[in-house]
C-alpha cells in the first residue's frame, strides 16, 4: 500500500476494500511507516478550505478485507507514526469466509512518535531527542470475523490535551502513562 506524499495530513480519509479471492495468497506491505502529520489549524490553510480556529479533522483509514475459501492474507505494514499535534483513527475489518480454509496473518502496530537523533553518527553516546507521545489522538479498531462470528475485537484509544507550547522534551500525559514503552503492537494469526 502506498499513500500519496508518504503520509496523511489532517482531514485525509482513506477508504479501501480488499478482496482476497479463492485459492490465492496476498502479501500486503507498506513503503514505510504511515506518517500522520500534525493538524492544520484554520489560519494555516488557504481561505477556500479554512475552518473556524481550532483543530481540524482527524486523519482516518477504513479498510475492509474479505478472505475467501482457500485464501491467505498476510498484512505486515510498517508502524503508524503520529507526529506531534496529530489526530489519527483507523478501523480494519477482516472477514474470513471459511473457518477451515481462510488464513490471516495480521500485524498492527504504532510508535510513540518521531525519534530524532542528535549527535555524530559514530558517537557511542548519542543523545535521543524524542517527539514521543506528543499527539492528540490515536484510535485503532481491528475486528476479525470467521463465518460471520467475531473472533477478535481489539481497540486502542489514546487521547490527551496538549499545552499551547510543546517542547520536544515535554513529558505529556500519555508519556507518563505509557513510559517506558515506545511501540505497541497486535499480532493475530488465524
Automatic annotation (TrEMBL):
Instruction: Supply the alphabetized keyword list.
Output: Chaperone
> Does the entry feature the keyword Cell membrane, yes or no?
no
Q: List GO molecular-function terms, semicolon-separated.
A: nickel cation binding
Family to which this protein belongs? Belongs to the UreD family.
Q: Return the PANTHER family for the record.
A: UREASE ACCESSORY PROTEIN D (PTHR33643)
Protein name (database record)? Urease accessory protein
Ranked from the top, the taxonomy reads: Eukaryota, Fungi, Dikarya, Basidiomycota, Ustilaginomycotina
